[in-house]
Amino acid sequence: MHDMNLLRKFLKLLCAEKKRRKKLSAQYNWHRLARHNQLPPKGNWRIWLILAGRGFGKTRTGSETLRQWVREGSAKRIALVGETEIEVRQVMVEGPSGLLAVHPPAERPLYEPSKRQIMWPCGALATCFSAQAYEQLRGPQFDTAWVDELAKFQDAEKVWNQLMFTLRRGINPRAIVTTTPRSTQFIKKLSQDPDIVVTKGSTFENAKNLARPFLDYMFKHYEKSSLGRQELYADFIDDHQGALWNSKLIEQARSSFQNIPLQRIVISIDPAVSCGAQSDETGIIAAGITTQGVGVVLEDFSIKAPASAWIKRAIDAYHRLNADRIVAEVNMGGDLVEQLLRSYDTSISFKAVRATRSKIIRAEPIAALYERGKIWHAQHFPELEAQLCTYIPGVSPKSPDRLDALVWALSDLLLVPSCGHRVWLA
After folding, report:
1. 3-class DSSP assignment, residue 49
2. What domain count does the chain have?
3. Is 284:267 a contact under the CB 8 Å cutoff?
4. Shortest CA distance to 76 belongs to which of 161, 141, 163?
5. Which residues contact 141 (CB under 8 A, 6 or more apart)?
6. What per-residue confidence (pLDDT) applies to 15?
7. CATH code at 395?
8. 270 with 329: CB under 8 angstroms?
């Protein structure tokens, strides 16, 4: 009887172990889980460029593709390239869809952050690189590369050129690029290269793995917008005829940025007149000016929220950035805007501005500064830049809140007298 009980326990444990292994096998069976456009294209290609919306599963695709190539033995020396060291580690390596997560425990590689290396049990080795330090790509050689969010890189073409020189090991060195597109000349050139295999995909293709509230919000607020075309459907937002800004100007502003001391900083507010489902956002932009007279767009804090929320956000930014002034348009709210701000903080320096001229007359001098290289962008501002490149004076039906806040900030810094002297004149 005792032996029978032991046998039953053994069989029960054996059955449980079989179920566990079956579940584990299904969890790591990428060919069963992946959609068709997440699997490597057929044919003898060298570069696979995946242009896809947010949440498509780009990171998982990159991780799983490398895992497959390592198992096949075709990937032995690998370069992992992200925008920053932090993003390489937190997204490509340790993220929920990163390299460590997609491997079953028995195959999981060893990650050594101090060496920026990942070692597989089979001997394959990956080295992590930041696009900000792309010169580190001089010297080493690889048979495989994975580049994540190439369109975000400050010097994307320079990084790419250095990487291409490293892909010289093995019989058929290959690279996979996973990115949400941006309308830059370089990314467009890559997507049109006949030697590059391009896969496109949208956010909504991965709907079963994304939160329903997220999908509902994206569809409601961005599905028909220019920003949604880029971030959800992976379309290139082409320049609009008649717009004061274009992608070339924005790209120039971003690539010219230098992290140098600023002479003054202002927080600019274009307040929304209401807070409802159909209301505009309140545009809140932080900008500064260098001692050489270059305007620098620092941060975009724009938000759709009640007055109490955007006031707190603006004042928090004012103190955190040690700003010199808050500038706010008061056409609709009159003295109420200043009263609300001072009800939260009486110490702020405040300047009210009124739109006595048309938007195009106010915006044209700022656009001219962009053309002369007198404006830098400290980072990528997708919503703001989409407004700049798609707003056509006299045609666009909606007043762009972020654009207005930008114009007020840069006008205060570069076009009007400040502190008893004129900083710079357009």
Report:
1. strand
2. 2
3. yes
4. 141
5. 77, 166, 167, 168, 169
6. 65
7. 3.30.420.240
8. yes
Mean pLDDT by groups of 10 residues along the chain of 426 residues: 65 63 68 91 93 94 96 95 95 96 92 96 96 93 96 92 95 95 87 93 92 89 75 80 84 90 94 68 94 96 88 93 91 72 87 75 89 93 86 73 93 70 33
Co-location of 59 and 192 in the same domain: yes
CA distance 63 to 143: 16
Residues 69 and 213 in one domain: yes
Task: Name the strand (E) or helix (H) holding 81.
Answer: strand 77-82
In a domain, 174, yes or no: yes
Nearest to 341 by CA among 284, 394, 395, 398: 284
Left (φ > 0), alpha (ψ -120 to 50) or beta: where does 38 sit? alpha
CA angle 229, 230, 234 (to 5 degrees): 95
CA 71 to chain centre: 31
Q: Residue 134: what residue type?
A: Y
261/394 same-domain check: yes
Tokens of 228: 């949604």
Q: What is the CATH number of the domain that holds 201?
A: 3.40.50.300
The Cα-based distances of 183 to 60, 89, 307 in angstroms read 24, 27, 34
DSSP class of 57: S
- What is the number of helices (H) and of strands (E) in the chain? 15, 16
Contact by Cβ (8 Å): 325, 266: yes
Q: Which residues pair with 406 in a beta bridge?
A: none
